[in-house]
Amino acid sequence: MGHQSSGKSALIEALMGFQFNQVGGGTKTRRPVALRMQYNPECHQPRCFLQGDDGVERPKSMSEIQEYIEKENTRLERDPVRCFDEREINVRMEYKYCPNMILIDTPGLIAAPKIPRGRAGSNSSVSMQQRALLKSAREAERLVVKKMKCKDYIILCVEDTMDWKHGATREIVQKADPDLQRTVIINTKLDTKIPQFGTPADVGDFLRADVIENLSPNKLGGPFFSSVPSGRVGRPDDAKNGAFDDFLFGDDEDFVTACVENEENDRAIVTQRLKNLKFRNNDKQSAISASKTLLPRVGLSRLRGFLERRVDECYRRNVSKIVPMLQSEHEQCKRKLEQCDKDIEAISVEKLKQGADAFCDDFCAALKQSIQGSVIAPPTIYGETLEQEMGNAGNFYGKFSHFSDSNKVLFPLVADLRFCP
Prior knowledge:
This protein is of the alpha/beta class.
């Protein structure tokens, strides 16, 4: 999740290795998009699959998936009741640059202005717009917080700030993860921030983020620093529409190369700015180069490697739970398969003939008895054991106190024998 949709979506695309969603101003994601990425070295072009409302996964082109997402966004924009939908859009993709993990792109948080109490009069139209924006902001926040409360999720908190004392996104994340034990903090647009610091010490303080370390010592990871190249990748459909000149990258390979170059430039600039700066943790230890200490936090490759290691650790930690579940599922499927085999055998021609013959025999026997008539009551229906007979007859002792023990009355059971003509 992230506070600004453009930085968050661009970061996700850089992690995937290709541009996927629409990036720009406004709310571009009104339903969470679950991106199940699978590394496939033989897949030189992204191969995508979209899961429909019926649960069936179907292959789709990138343009078709984008069109579906935009259609859902338009539907929710026009919905008079709600602006967001918590149902996930499930997309699976295979690509040679994809890591093996699932990323859920949640709607971006909206910074709505507070409405002063008692405001009315000439500004009523503006107030209505602000109230609508405030409602959308609260709805988006509820959706995002609900998603983050799942204990199995790792939260990517995307911040765009130069002062760690102010973190609007962290405040929202802490509603679901108070100690940030499942949260990785990411600071975007590093290439535009570094030139704004006057001294190497300011750069070092920003990258060290001592405020974050003191406030959240138990955080999962970060802060990591990244920057993503601006510009979009031109698709074949864009070339057909004559709009290919508006795009900076010819294909996804160019986009990946640009991301690598951005990271190398960021690391080079940080190294240059911090080349003479050293950190000293205490008086007994020798000074440590600031660039060597802080460079492991700079770059998308460092973030991606950290996430892959964490996902692998979570998987290995849960193997003891996953294996019994898989074994149980295997046994259930095996039993269902055996039952299906029995059902298939039961509908063979021989089994059907045997069942039909048995039914005909029983029917003819019952018909014969009905025609001839009988005074014999079927014991399986009307028969009773002595214990059942006594229980059904009831105990009359004590209910008729005027009878003495010597004059006990025996109420005989009267059998109702029905004769068939």
